[in-house]
Design a protein that fits this description.
The protein is built from nine helices and no strands. With 130 residues, the protein is mainly alpha-helical.
Length: 130
């Protein structure tokens, strides 16, 4: 069985998705809140997202072999449903921007990653107001 990683075009496509994602949050005001929780220099997170997406989609698993948990790494950030929605929307746009990806596979990837983003919500609006 062919992995999603291979079906989308491997490393070059995964890197393009990660770079497009961070270009969007860096430049599009719709993602200003998401951009605000990142450091000024996005190069490390661009690399990290590329490595995560590679392993997550069935490619090289070097990111996972370091023993990190994606959920634990984000626990320190105040993630609201609005922030998770921004992440999901930017990722969906980044995936859809890649030429040649089967639309059904692109939608499945975006849905799964959006579900993961919503799983990271750790702050409700009520908690934020308190």
């Amino acid at each position: 069985m062919t992995t999603p990683y291979a079906r989308i075009g491997g490393e070059a496509t995964v890197a393009a998705i990660a770079n497009r994602f961070y270009d969007l949050i860096d430049r599009d005001p719709a993602y200003a809140d998401l951009r605000a929780i990142h450091a000024a220099d996005l190069s490390a997170v661009r690399h990290g997202l590329t490595r995560f997406l590679a392993g997550w989609s069935g490619g090289p698993r070097d990111w996972f072999e370091r023993g990190q948990c994606i959920m634990s790494l984000h626990r320190a950030f105040p993630i609201t449903s609005a922030l998770a929605d921004q992440w999901s929307a930017a990722m969906t746009r980044a995936i859809k921007a890649q030429p040649g990806i089967d639309p059904q596979l692109a939608a499945a990837m975006a849905d799964a990653l959006g579900h993961m983003a919503r799983g990271m919500i750790n702050l409700s609006l009520d908690q934020n107001a308190a």
